[in-house]
Amino acid sequence: MTTMAGLIAELPDQLRWAAGLTPPEVAAADEILVAGMGGSGIAGDIAGAVADASGGRIGVHKSYGLPGWAARSRPLLVAVSHSGNTEETLSSVAAAVEAGLAPAVVTTGGRLGELASDGGWPMIAAPSGPQPRAAVGYLAGATLRLAEAAGVVPPLSADLAEAADVVEMLIGGGVGPGVALAEDLAEGLEGRVAVIYGGHGPAAVAANRWKCQINENGKAPAYWSVLPELDHNEIVGWEAYPKLTDRIGIVTLFDRDAHPRVALRAGLTAALVGDRVGIVGEVESQGESLVARLFSLIVIGDLLSVAIAERAGMDPMPVDVIQSLKQRLAEEE
Length: 333
What we know:
Elements (H helix, E strand, L loop, with lengths): L3 H5 L2 H9 L12 E4 L2 H16 L4 E4 L8 H4 L2 E6 L5 H12 L5 E4 L2 H10 L3 E3 L10 H14 L7 H15 L5 H13 L3 E7 L2 H15 L5 E6 L14 H4 L2 E7 L5 H14 L4 E7 L5 H23 L7 H12 L2
Helix pairs in contact: 2-7, 2-8, 3-7, 3-10, 8-13, 9-13, 10-13
C-alpha cells in the first residue's frame, strides 16, 4: 500500500522531472498571478519567493474570482489545480477569460485540462497519482518552469536538479539526517500545538507548508507566523493563559539569506517567551540555490508531519473531512 512516507520519498524524482521539462511557449509577462488552493496553491507561494529573490513578481490568489487589480494590471494568470476540478481555481479562470486574459495551466486533467485544450492555452500536464499535497515537486516545478518561459524568473533547471539532490540526501532512503531531525522535532511536539516561525521569504513559505502538512498529514492543529511581524504583536500573546501556552511548541525556520536582524530577532524572541511556551527547535536551510534551500526546509516539514501522525496513531493519507466538505458544497450547487 502506498504510504505518505513513500510519496515524500518521491520528491527528488518529481523535482528532476520538473528540471527536465521543456515548457510550452508563453507570452512574455511583467508579472504573474498564480491561482490555486491547498496543495496546489503552495506552488504559487514557492514561485513567488523565487521570483522575489530574482527581481520578478509573482502574486498568489487563493479564493474565487480575481483580485480587483488584475483586470487593470493584466498579469499572466497561471492556474494550478492538481485535480483540474478545484472550484475556486475554475472561478478564477472564468474571471480571467471574461477579462480577456488567456491563462496558462498546470494540472493533471479534469475540467481545467479540458478548458486549456479547448482554448489552446499553454499547459503543463503534471503526472497523476499522488495527492495534491504529495505532488509539490510536480506542481511547484511546473509553475516555476512556466514563469521561466514567461521571463519572470531566470532559468531554473539546474536549481531544481540541485534541490532534488539535497532532498534525496536529507531523506537518505528513510534513514537520512532529515528523517532523524523530523523524529526529534516530533518528540518535542508530541501533545503540543505546533507554531512554526519563519523569516520573511523562503522560510515563511516553508513555515506555511509545515503548518498545512501538520494539519493534513498529522491531523493536528498547527499555526505559522512570520518574523519580524510577529515581534510586533504575537510575542505579547503568550502571557494571559499559562496553562494553555505551556502546550505550545515553537519551531523556527531559518534561511541563510534572511536579513541578519531576523536571526537576531528569532534568538531574542525565543529568550523572551521561552518560559511561557515550549521552544522545540530550529531548522536551517541547506543547499546553494534558493530553490534547493526552500525544498530542504519543505521536506523536513513533510517528514515531521508523518512522524506526528505516527505518534498519534493516525493515518496520514485520508482527508475525510475535506472530502465531506466538497460533497456538501456540490449538493448546494
